[in-house]
Design brief:
Chains A, B, C, D: Keywords: GTP-binding, Magnesium, Metal-binding, Nucleotide-binding, Nucleotidyltransferase, Transferase, tRNA processing. Chains A, B, C, D: Its EC number is 2.7.7.79. 4 copies of one chain form a homotetramer. Chain A contains 12 helices and 6 strands. Chain A is of the alpha+beta class. The first copy, chain A, has a domain of 194 residues: tRNA(His) guanylyltransferase (Thg1) (Alpha-Beta Plaits, 2-Layer Sandwich), CATH 3.30.70. The longest helix of chain A has 31 residues.
Amino acid sequence: MANSRFEYVKSFEQPDVLLPNTWIVVRIDGRGFHKLSDHYAFAKPNDRRALDLMNAAAVEVMKELPDLCIAYGVSDEFSFVFHPNCQLFERRNGKLVTTIVSTFTAHYIYNWSEFFPERPLLPPYLPSFDGRAVIYPNNRILRDYMSWRQVDCHINNLYNTTFWTMVLQGGMSNTDAEQELKGTVSADKNEILFKRFGINYNNELEIYKKGTVLYRQYELEEPKPTKAPADEESPVIESQQSRSQQDKIRKLRRKAQVVIDHVDIIKDEFWEKRPWILSGNPGKLPA
Amino acid sequence: MANSRFEYVKSFEQPDVLLPNTWIVVRIDGRGFHKLSDHYAFAKPNDRRALDLMNAAAVEVMKELPDLCIAYGVSDEFSFVFHPNCQLFERRNGKLVTTIVSTFTAHYIYNWSEFFPERPLLPPYLPSFDGRAVIYPNNRILRDYMSWRQVDCHINNLYNTTFWTMVLQGGMSNTDAEQELKGTVSADKNEILFKRFGINYNNELEIYKKGTVLYRQYELEEPKPTKAPADEESPVIESQQSRSQQDKIRKLRRKAQVVIDHVDIIKDEFWEKRPWILSGNPGKLPA
Amino acid sequence: MANSRFEYVKSFEQPDVLLPNTWIVVRIDGRGFHKLSDHYAFAKPNDRRALDLMNAAAVEVMKELPDLCIAYGVSDEFSFVFHPNCQLFERRNGKLVTTIVSTFTAHYIYNWSEFFPERPLLPPYLPSFDGRAVIYPNNRILRDYMSWRQVDCHINNLYNTTFWTMVLQGGMSNTDAEQELKGTVSADKNEILFKRFGINYNNELEIYKKGTVLYRQYELEEPKPTKAPADEESPVIESQQSRSQQDKIRKLRRKAQVVIDHVDIIKDEFWEKRPWILSGNPGKLPA
Amino acid sequence: MANSRFEYVKSFEQPDVLLPNTWIVVRIDGRGFHKLSDHYAFAKPNDRRALDLMNAAAVEVMKELPDLCIAYGVSDEFSFVFHPNCQLFERRNGKLVTTIVSTFTAHYIYNWSEFFPERPLLPPYLPSFDGRAVIYPNNRILRDYMSWRQVDCHINNLYNTTFWTMVLQGGMSNTDAEQELKGTVSADKNEILFKRFGINYNNELEIYKKGTVLYRQYELEEPKPTKAPADEESPVIESQQSRSQQDKIRKLRRKAQVVIDHVDIIKDEFWEKRPWILSGNPGKLPA
């Protein structure tokens, strides 16, 4: 065919398949959201509508990609997690990341007007997101990744809550507030909030303190005595799972509801009650 | 800080910097557009509004990323090209690809209602795109890449035009039309169009036959006697360009208008008259 | 300095760090050993001196690189295994592989005359080896890799033993022997050996049937009731191990003797009695 | 076959094919040669026998791999260069690098006794080498790489010659000589050599000042007026060269003698007179 003279350029495409049997985390981040949040006048330190919009878009991503087993969001970032036995797009890095970034963006833009009816989008201030994939070799490290993000959420939220309270309620300049907070530890910030403003940080909304975790809802299980974790017990020889098995599991996942939760994901309890997240095997649908 | 116990997970992020001094092409593709074009009743074989929407979104991408020097679109795909001396995002693969995919998606969704006022978007049928970056080591190969896409456009459009004319005007079934076209060459298809339907393929719209090329408009130049191409003449030691130089060039690029063209990009003429595309040096702004 | 004009070429070097917390296997293979073994008249189906030379070179590699925790050899290949917490050369792929390939080659060439005193090396027939690194995310898969090589050893050795017995003792042509063996299973080959030649395959030397496993010798331990495997129990945050700790462990490893063994490494027993291999923690030196 | 249960581990091997149409440079370096050169009492600042041994081993590598078009060596390092149209081992990074490192090591060890008859090798002091591959997108940058190494050779040799003359002839301590040379430029070092020791640096051996360049010898050509460089003129669609063509070219290359030269490779002259190096097309064999 006439095309063939140029087709050799395809040979420059390089494979980017992610290592088998590892957790894949795709984390997306808002691009230039500092400027954007000013432009659309997001509330400080947290804008509930903006977070709800992030969560709404993320739920749609979870629905469209049943291979995702959990997601965690805070501020303008969201981490989407594929199980080690995931075979979606043959585990091609670029395909996985761009699909998530694009799907998320589409829903974020589409749903904007529902969450910000009085602040219509106006180019050139259209929100967009970048993203990356990182792989983690076992459950422990995947959980440490999730903990890292939730600790980050806590640290940033405590800081931001204190800072903006000092500025908005205390009438301090940004610079003065920043200066005073330099070098303080958590206890100091709690004290500033409580003593000066009568605010008990513990009473802040869970969505601000814990961020948002999304997962498919099955019947909760009683934690069992610890046993060898799934990825050691039996090698998940995923490439040998038949396509029909994979399709069946995908259908089961689609049936489960995606829930929006704001709970501790650092301690064991969350994971022990929801063993389907780490095992990758769908649980029992609630009656 | 309390965070540090988990921060080690950052060490699992792997670098993905693209080889210096090579052309970077980011090609994006519509996900599941076959189904989508049915759902929103795109016209066959070409839907002008859909193409115009693709082009509108691509123009916005060009405007937001002045480092882009040319882009080429056909059907539901678009290729965006960064010059070998581009340093944007330190040439990180994931960052470049996801930024383009997300920005494109945002504008595509945002502009949809302007181009399809009578067909509002409705989840779960939200358009989205995936993408990939490929690098090409020299001008010749970059041009062969562009030629490859334009030849592909021609081949597909001739096929689709003939096929849909046979079906829509000739009343053939899809299967019969497909069967008859099997093994035909260009001349055969031209003849079918002309003899049976009185259609001269040459008179079809250029946007359908040639696809769309986007670039920044400077004053056209007279082709000069061939000389050593830019990437050989002087090694573009891009990392040694100062930031202020890069910023200056970026500003010059922002001033140029992004034009939408439907012309041959396979022959030399296009490139010789617009030397700024391959050289990476902004030309003279039109009066 | 005058040098700087050209130094930008260093920016083309790309990082190749292997994912943290994964097993690294470097497998090397003899290049063109089929031809080479003819030239130096290796005995068929196994040449004991050639295997002993392979093992001698591999022992030297183990001694020079205390980070190696186990190695397995068969025919003209050898697999060297680094523990998930290995930080040698910052886990750079190229550095790890070339160091092993070169060190192995050096000792192989140097020791040749000791094992083949009557067959001096003569260029252009100098032995050389290529190699590659592969990473495995957990203990189970690492053990499956090792099992894969040992099963391969068994399959090939049974075939070769039968083939060469048919040729050398049975007077068959290579082609006839090959033809007869086509499609046979293990039992068939055992029967041919036993019925036609009175050979009980089980009595063949262990080094031929099992290949060679190298490891550092500490006091064997009694298998304990299964517990959570090391890589789950505590995340090996290797980058946080201090240099001095790493150096101390390295010294302990150097003190242990490297043993040459020909035993089953597929079953659990081998690994349970030598827990230091999978844990990465040196055991107790024998009195 | 019984093997299949474990064979899935092969899926963890990741491709490492180098970008097509780019120069491949494999640079190898002696491991721990500082200590090694002390142990075997290499002469300071240059040991002629050690350099001759490096060159002898490198010549053998060039002979064994006709795909190599040029090599450059200095001190204990050697750079081997494959042409952009090289298809050897499908351009697999690991295979190319380990083959060169191992072949070089084999010949270095094998030839040692010829160059150092009075200093037999003795483990654990066996020489070994590590290596890496780097790709360069065009002729200009490849030449800049070569220039970088030769400038490095010059800078180091001038320093070392001055330093060791001050120590060995001038009776200075290492520390004092190092101290005095700190911050000096080339002219200063030339003056120290000339004024204090009557040494004209220009009269030093070319092998020390220029390093060693290896290439296949064809009839020298007269430099032609500059024309578009090979990699632009015609896209080298290497994958479309037939195997038989590649084999033919390989045979032609084997016939050419590999010469050992110590000349300037920074200026154009070297490359213009030997156009076969950059073009990849064998020249005319000398009568």
